[in-house]
What does this fold into?
Amino acid sequence: MAGKVVLLPELWVGEASQWLSSSAGRVALEGYSWMQAVHWVAGSGLYQPRRHRSSGLRSFTKTTIYIAQLLAELTPCRPGIEYLMRRTGLTKRAVEYHVAALRETGLLAYVVKGTRVRGERAQASEFARMIPAEYDAALGIRTVLRDETAPAYTRAVTGIAEAGRKLMAKLGKQAARKVRRPRPKTSSKVSSEASPTSAPEGAGGVAETAVSEGSRCTPMRGGADGSSAAAGTYPPSESSKLASGQSESATRKKNKHRADGRKTKGRRKLNRIGRRYQLARELTQQVEWLRGCSVPRIAWVAQNVADAGWTVTEVLAWLHLRGTTQRVHRGSGLLAVLLANAENVLDTPSKRADAIAKWRGAQEAQRRHNIKRVRAERERYEGDWQNPASRAVRNEIDSAVAQLKSLSRPVVQDIPDDASGPGAASYEVGEAEFADIRAAARDGLAHGDTSLINDTIHACGPDKALRVYGPELISRARQIDQIRRSSLTTLTFGA
It folds into this structure.
């Protein structure tokens, strides 16, 4: 099977054939089969881009496989350059080179190409994961186009040759195994200090270094410097460590391993500058009027409290004790004023703990106050009617009620009860006594005031209010109240 792979033509797809409509491959139905094709391209050696261009990658690398593994997780496959840079730790140009290698091998095809318009946000390109035709030919995969009117890239697999089954199984194991993120290259200083007998980087991407002859400490083989193995040795300071069979270095190495045998990464302790930046970053995230401020500037402003060991909770408690303002022009300047001499006032952990307790209590009190306010508003709109606070409104209601009581019963019976029919829009009360009340209500609606109509409805009932104001004014009052309660609209009335 290896001989057949070598005899295949060179794997190269030009720019004109890197689109889905012009691609010679077929669309991969899922990420697993596509990763099989990716591993086959990586191991075939058919991709030789330097024959066609002088820049970019020289071959299909392990980093290219890792980027393909990231693309296999996306649905739809629309990767952004910044996303791949963040996941791989590579530069923008390096990411573009690896994505171009996937397109030049026929593994990716453009569905929609990204746009970059000045003044607008850049749009990422959308790709289709493809399986090259050379892959099907190498493994003897048989495909068929079930619908003759469908495009050629929708071919479906119907079988595989017996000779390609073993290679297919091998590619399946490689596709199921997750590729780790490649480590960055070591510095020149480390490489210069490495032993000349170090082994080259293996297939797994990790360099295996042989042990130097001069670094052996056993008396069986002498070091390269010619000194005696027993020279320069001293008895241990505590014999109990040797009695237990463990030395200090062995204990330190053992502590670096977890219970399951895997090594744990040591967490580096922050220095003074790191603590300043950590506190500044937390302040810009939790303090509303500090959002958008420069983290280095906030770190410089809060350097005294950060050096004193303050946490972000203690800083928030101190800011609560100092008080806040409703309008902030410059967040860093206000923070510098509020934090002045703070490390000397709360100079002990107990004082800072008391400040935190007071801040927590104030937060709880504010939360309860907000709950009571919301309940009061709900009861105001949903509960029983209450007398208005305005004396002028109460006088108008009393006069309207008095006029309603003074009306004779036969006049009220002549008014039709059905005010919601087709003729309701043109219906108006003709009594002269109601003209002043209707004029006052209409003037109030023009300024967004519906209190006169609503108070009449609550005091006398909807039927009597309908006979006084008519359906048109009541309908307008209800519409204004509904719009006012909505959080999606804003009412503005003229003077």
